[in-house]
Amino acid sequence: MLSTESAKTITATLPAVRGALGEITALFYEKLFAARPELLRDLFNRGNQANGSQRQALAGSIAAFAGHLVAHPDSRPDAMLARIAHKHASLGVRADQYPIVREHLFAAIAEVLGDAVTDEVVRAWDEVYWLMAHALIVLEKRLTEEAGIREGCVWRPYRVVGRIRETAEVTTFLLRPADGAPVPPSRPGQYVSVQVQLPDGARQIRQYSLSGQLDGGLQISVKRVAAGRRAGESSEDPAGEVSSHLHAHVHDGEILYVSPPFGEVVLSEDDGGPLLLASAGIGCTPMIGMLAHLAAAGSRRRILTAHADRSPSAHPFRTDLRRLTDKLSDATADLWYEEGAGEGDPTGAVTVRTGLMDLTRLAIPSGTTAYLCGPVPFMKAVRAQLLASGLPAERIHYEVFGPDLGL
């Protein structure tokens, strides 16, 4: 892995680089998009660039990789690499784009850190960069080969064959290949990337979980993202470009360009042990896909579903959750609503509560495998509850849409 000399240099410089990563990544993206504006137009999420979350994710991944190489010289952070590789493969990232990133990233490092960036420092961080890049390139090549596609050629036309209004904010799109060929195989919990052309000509990409099983097609569910302010932030994020476009302009018969399914957070069917599916808001989409798969397979596993939302009317797939829970032989669902929990409460295997999700109120069986999806603050809180309950960290899996800022 990392050479002895480079490891010494990284150890010495990592605190300074970590401290300047926010400034470095901001300058990096400025330089990258000035030189290659098509990358912002057609590859990077413009919304995440506007609110700075993509910059935080890049900074965090580089620092985490370098820190891991120093602390664990005989291994690499495979879980982090796999998550990034699946995202990259679904976006059509190519191997020849890594030198472009390296050029502008190192130019930003040199400009921010100035005289501290000696030849020795450049060599050490260059080694870190290419260890990470080559690992990702190998993983991404394998993923695209397994999906039966060529590097960078991820997009396939799908025709919208139906729309279902789940809530005032969430719509399900039913898609079938426009070429009539079979859909690619998928695993419960995976997602696809969807590319749409916006009015200004940009081809923006977003990723959506497969939210159910459609014979001969794919099913995704999209929440329209409204403008708003994130917790603790003073500035307001703009409304979602792609989600607003899909809700307003994409109807039956329209063509969408869709990637094969990707994603490493998938339902494990190896041990047959208990499952916990915990979600909040639109994070229920991969969970309802997993639950539909389990019900179709007649699973006899112990299954606990936990979901948090603003209100029953804002909860997508609420009726489907009840139906699938009743269909399974050993499944229960616990729902937390911030308001309106008393309106038409389900009974039997479904329990409804008012307030925020509290998994300490559930009896989680030994050997449970947990899957989490929702806003990062929610997943941090839920993961902490599970760890405190004694569930090992390796049995807790999570899916993040948008930049992965870490738990």
Helix content range of the residues, please? 40-55%
Continuous helix count: 11
Secondary structural class: alpha/beta
Shape: globular
Uncertain spans: none
Average pLDDT, all residues:
90
Rg (C-alpha, Å): 22 Å
Beta-strand percentage? Answer: 15-25%
Largest sheet: 6 strands, antiparallel
How many strand elements?
12
First-to-last CA distance: 26 Å
Q: What is the ordering of alpha helices and beta strands?
A: HHHHHHHEEEEEHEEHEHEEEHE
Word description of this protein:
The protein is α/β, with parallel strands linked by helices. 41% of the residues lie in helices and 19% in strands. A six-stranded antiparallel beta sheet has the order 4-3-6-1-2-5.
Write the layout of secondary structure elements.
Elements: H1 4-35, H2 37-42, H3 46-51, H4 53-71, H5 78-91, H6 98-113, H7 119-146, E1 156-165, E2 170-177, E3 191-197, E4 203-209, E5 218-223, H8 241-249, E6 255-258, E7 275-280, H9 284-296, E8 303-309, H10 318-327, E9 331-337, E10 350-354, E11 369-373, H11 376-388, E12 396-399
Parallel strand pairs: 7-8, 7-11, 8-9, 9-10, 11-12
Antiparallel strand pairs: 1-2, 1-6, 2-5, 3-4, 3-6
Helix pairs in contact: 1-4, 1-6, 1-7, 4-7, 5-7, 9-10
Task: List the main descriptive attributes of the protein structure presented here.
single chain, 407 residues, alpha/beta, six-stranded antiparallel sheet, globular
